[in-house]
Amino acid sequence: METELILAISAIVVLLAISAFFSGAETSMTASSKPRMHTLEQSGDKKAQIVNKLWSAKEHLIGSILLGNNLVNILASALATSVFLKLFGETGVIYATLTMTALVLVFAEVLPKTYALRHSDKAALASAPILRPIVFIFGPVALAVESIVKVILAIFTRSDTADEMNEFAEEELRGAIDLHEGEGEEVRHEREMLRSILDLDDVEVDEIMTHRQDVNSSDIDQSPAQVIEDVLSSSYTRIPLWQDKPDNIVGVLHAKALLRAIRAHDGELDRETLISIASKPWFIPESTSLLAQLHAFRDRHAHFAIVVDEYGEMQGIVTLEDILEEIVGDITDEHDIDIEGVQTVTDNEFIINGTVTIRDLNRQFEWRLPDDEAATLAGLILHEARQIPKVGQAFVFHDMRFEILDRKRHQITSIRVSPIHE
């Protein structure tokens, strides 16, 4: 009798240990860092390779773990009930239930899962070689259970579309970026860059282009000397050439090509030579996304495009540098013109030009101003106010206070912006 009791108790202890392994393995496999496991596999780690292979069929993996965990828990409970019935009679069922609930909860659930959460990568690497044969053994049963579950889910739920899956993946990435810890300037800049990369497909070129009224261009019908002077006085290496009217772009002149032509012709250039060395203008619709345009720049080995609206009218220009600046921030060199757009009054007060884009403000100050309906700060105020505000008027929306400081005709040119902190 005593021997049977000792064997039964020993079996219960072993089964609880196995249950703890299954619980910890399940938690570690789901909580482990997939990017880190991928990196370890690329570096030749065999255990990481097993982890990734098991996770590639996660429904199969989870089904096998749960099957094994339930088997050992039920068996341990049955043995405990048998032992307590022999010791205490019919009331042993109550004692067995209370005892096994406490043991399973503490030693087979909370304890292993807490450890696995704190050391998920380490626990996943340690448990993967043991899980592989278990998944193979329980595979057929787990597959049958998985099939039943899929049939039930198909009846009562609908499958996610490819767009929904892509949106979910993007939201997951954005959440991971926002959770990127640290408040230093370098960490903040990293978050800005990662967010900007995800936004490339949602932003159109007309939101970042240089508007036609700010484009440095040159009239091809004027004297070649004046065209050369326009190129030399510009801070840009590519100058659009127009004919008859500034919107009629007939070519794009590169400063380096102009210098080669000047040397080849001993400084004597004519209009035909300027036209021949100018590249053919590349026109793109204003609704083109930055991601599509970035790929187009790469495929065409080009850096410069003319943005047109639906009627074919020129709206502005966009360059490869413009798109790169959306990712890494402003790129300046010794020839760039410093344009003041944001003036810091205090840590909580700024004077901002109306033409400054909302994306730049969100990136610089980590604000959350919406840019769906308007690209610039002035456009956002017009959209929210539903009127053309007067100088001195103030508005509060999106947890920010906006005071109109200056206006030229119907264009808001200067705004005092103050974030409202609760």
Automatic annotation (TrEMBL):
This is Membrane protein. Pfam families: CBS, CNNM, CorC_HlyC. Coiled coil: none annotated. The keyword Nucleus does not apply. InterPro entries: CBS_dom (IPR000644), CBS_dom_sf (IPR046342), CNNM (IPR002550), FAD-bd_PCMH-like_sf (IPR036318), FAD-bd_PCMH_sub2 (IPR016169), Ion_transp-like_CBS (IPR044751), Transptr-assoc_dom (IPR005170). GO terms for cellular component: plasma membrane. Keywords: CBS domain, Cell membrane, Membrane, Repeat, Transmembrane, Transmembrane helix. Residues 209-271, 277-337 form the CBS domain. Belongs to the UPF0053 family. Hemolysin C subfamily. Its main location: membrane. It is a multi-pass membrane protein. The chain crosses the membrane at residues 61-85, 92-110, 130-156. GO terms for molecular function: flavin adenine dinucleotide binding. Residues 1-190 form the CNNM transmembrane domain. It is found in: Cell membrane.
